[in-house]
Write a structure and sequence with these properties.
675 residues; alpha/beta; Rossmann fold; GMP Synthetase, Chain A, domain 3; 7-stranded mixed beta sheet; 20 helices; 30 strands; 29% helix; AMP-binding_CS; AMP-dep_synth/lig_dom; Acetyl-CoA synthetase-like protein; AMP-bd_C_sf; CoA-ligase activity
């Protein structure tokens, strides 16, 4: 029996509703249509030189840009010799841009598809994706890249535009050596620049000069009316943990559904949605969000287990950092979350660029827009008119300064950012009191890190669960959920169902752990040109199609989901299965551990896996024990004392940083070479 979401079933728009139709209605929403929504990086930040003339975009600006882009494509500005037609693909190859989403929607209005490519890829990797999707154009940034090593812009390094030109050349001149089934692209493959002022190569030549009036809107809408909900809206690419990345086909129906589902789950931390969907309910009165958590809910909630966490920290670390009565630490958390004023005391907060109503949310985005998670967050922002600063990528000083200076109330983050909030010394230099909750995603969130952020800053950290193949949101904790099940990833999104199976395909009961299967309107159409992967991804159970997540999970009687492990991430040690997530949780409890990943390694000529840890030492650990071998021995002794013999970690390698994807996932396949 499928496990249904505990949330009410949503009466979604008609199946052929497109993303642009949901988000870019020409209805006038008064001031909300005209107020700034997507802000470029703040002036004076490390990123401000990328597009110095960039202005914030309102919902009206986004709509006008999208329609102008669509008109330019329809008029043949991309290629006069080859008209832009339904299904044509434009590949995005750029870090975050404040107008990224507007351009994606414009391509869709013209009947096209946006392929969202990772700008850190090399030319050969990009060429593979261009061939796979038969792209017509690559839209790339020509801004000097940011160097994580120096913390500055590197003006001597090649840009995404440079890589894109080489990738396009390879895609046109060579067949795909790796797969041997995607032939070279025949015909024009244009590479254009995101930034303004690049002459004929600039993307602005597509949309510049149009007046978006009723006649233009009517012409574009006629083209857009050819689209159906089952048509592809975007191609996102899986992380490629085995083999080359796969193109995930997400339809308009998938994304329309997930925007509404995500808004329901995020209703406590976004502004009031512009559309409520009452006209789709059988009674004509019930809206999509009537039973969702109200905005600001959970301000007085203490996370389950937090008091015990503070008590243990005090007992194990009775001198130095972290001392003080339990009550004092708890009061600090409660006081921090009760600060209702979103404005910082910084004099610059009065800058008119960032003025807004006092009751409004104001977010900051660092999630990569080429990742489905980052894109859907921006789509929800349009649906709710929730303003945000959009940074090209995470940069600690710019992130902290923006929160302090502009009264940011919320941010979507990944665990590495939370590690910085919990432990980085620079945090103490900024007033982060306006930021009282964050949401983590893209990688598992250890409770120790969430508690560490709460203890230090009074910030509530909710977890969530998603995958690109589900558009991507499957579940998100609300702040109120932290009191009930902090070790969960929340409840299933509305209109989503789950099934838990044992290794033999037998359906398990509520509360039993097994492989998690999912279905819902946000489930992908499939992988592009990859029938073998589709056979592995989908399962037929009871006459219905389900997506196999590859995750081991359990769902309790209240509907809370707990992810216990990845099927393919399990280590086989001495005939038993070992959960890396369980061991990583134990490592995170150690004050000497800044970051850690546990995986299986093999010695040359041996088929037996060893349980091995790769860890980043906290600066304090180096001060207290400079000898790496002694430090490793001390940590391993503590961890191994808490587990069965077959689970014991056989070694620990200290490294400077864990290899991670741009979405924050640890690339465990790269760890063995670092041993």
């Amino acid at each position: 029996m499928p496990i249904a979401s505990k949330h009410p079933v949503l009466h979604l728009p008609p199946p052929d509703t497109t993303l642009a139709r949901l988000l870019l209605s020409t209805k006038d929403h008064g001031r909300r249509t005209a107020e700034p929504l997507f802000y470029p990086p703040p002036a004076g930040s490390v990123f401000s030189s990328n597009r110095p003339q960039a202005k914030p975009m309102s919902l009206g600006d986004v709509r006008d840009r999208a329609y102008a882009v669509a008109k330019g494509l329809i008029d043949g500005r991309l290629s006069p010799e080859k008209p832009f037609k339904k299904g044509d693909v434009v590949a995005f190859f750029s870090l975050n841009q404040h107008d990224y989403t507007a351009n994606v929607l414009g391509i869709q209005l013209a009947g096209g598809v946006a392929a969202l490519c990772n700008p850190s890829y090399k030319a050969k990797e990009l060429a593979h994706q261009l061939r796979m999707t038969s792209a017509r154009c690559v839209l790339a940034s020509n801004a000097a890249p940011f160097s994580a090593a120096t913390g500055q812009i590197d003006t001597k390094a090649e840009t995404a535009f440079d890589v894109a030109k080489e990738g396009a050349r390879l895609a046109q001149e060579e067949d795909d050596d790796d797969v041997k089934k995607f032939p070279k692209i025949e015909g024009p493959l244009r590479v254009m620049v995101f930034e303004e002022g690049a002459g004929d190569d600039s993307w602005e030549t597509i949309y510049r000069g149009y007046k978006v009036d009723e006649a233009l809107i009517k012409q574009v809408d006629e083209r857009a009316s050819e689209l159906k909900g089952s048509d592809t809206a975007i191609y996102c690419f899986s992380s490629g943990t085995s083999g080359l990345p796969k193109a995930v086909n997400l339809t308009h129906r998938n994304l329309v559904s997930n925007v509404i589902q995500s808004t329901f789950l995020l209703h406590d931390r976004v502004n009031e949605p512009l559309e409520q969907g009452r006209e789709y309910a059988p009674d004509g009165k019930t809206g999509w969000y009537d039973t969702a958590e109200p905005k600001g809910a959970g301000r007085d909630v203490l996370p389950d287990g937090y008091e015990e966490f503070v008590k243990k920290k005090r007992e194990s670390h009775s001198s130095g950092q972290g001392t003080g009565p339990v009550k004092e630490s708890i009061n600090k958390l409660v006081d921090g979350i009760k600060k209702l004023n979103p404005a910082s005391k910084d004099d610059d907060q009065t800058d008119s660029l960032y003025k807004r109503s006092a009751e409004d949310e104001f977010h900051i985005d660092v999630l990569p827009q080429f990742h489905c998670y980052g894109l859907v967050v921006n789509l929800v922002a349009l649906h709710t008119c929730t303003p945000r600063i959009i940074l090209p990528r995470f940069h600690l000083d710019t992130f902290l300064r923006s929160i302090s200076k502009h009264g940011v109330t919320f941010s979507f983050v990944v665990p590495p950012i939370l590690l910085a909030l919990a432990k980085h010394p620079s945090i103490d230099n900024y007033d982060l009191s306006s930021l009282w909750r964050v949401a983590s995603g893209a990688a598992s969130l250890p409770t120790e890190i969430a508690f560490g952020v709460a203890k230090r800053l009074g910030i509530r950290c909710t977890d969530g669960y998603g995958m690109t193949e589900m558009s991507p949101i499957i579940s998100i904790q609300t702040v109120s959920n932290l009191k009930e099940r902090i070790d969960s990833v929340g409840r299933l999104a509305p209109s989503t169902e789950a099934m838990i199976l044992d290794p033999n395909g037998k359906e398990l009961k509520v509360g039993e752990a097994g492989e998690l299967l999912l279905r819902g309107p946000q489930m992908m159409a499939g992988y592009l040109h990859n029938e073998e992967a589709n056979k592995q991804a989908f399962a037929q159970v009871g006459g219905s199609t389900w997506l196999r997540t590859g995750d081991v999970a359990l769902i309790d009687e209240k509907g809370f989901i707990k992810i216990t492990d990845r099927l393919k991430d399990v280590i086989k040690s001495k005939g038993f299965q070992v959960s890396p997530a369980e061991l990583e949780g134990l490592f995170y409890k150690d004050e000497w551990i800044q970051d850690v990943a546990v995986t299986g390694v093999r010695d040359a000529g041996s088929e037996e896996e060893k349980v091995w840890a790769f860890a980043v030492a906290h600066p304090r650990a180096v001060e207290e024990e400079g000898d790496e071998e002694k430090r490793a021995s001390t940590v391993l002794k503590k961890v191994n004392a808490q587990v069965a013999n077959y689970k014991k970690v056989q070694g620990l390698t200290w490294i400077n940083a864990l290899p991670k994807s741009d979405a924050g996932k640890v690339l465990k396949k790269n760890l063995a070479a670092m041993r």
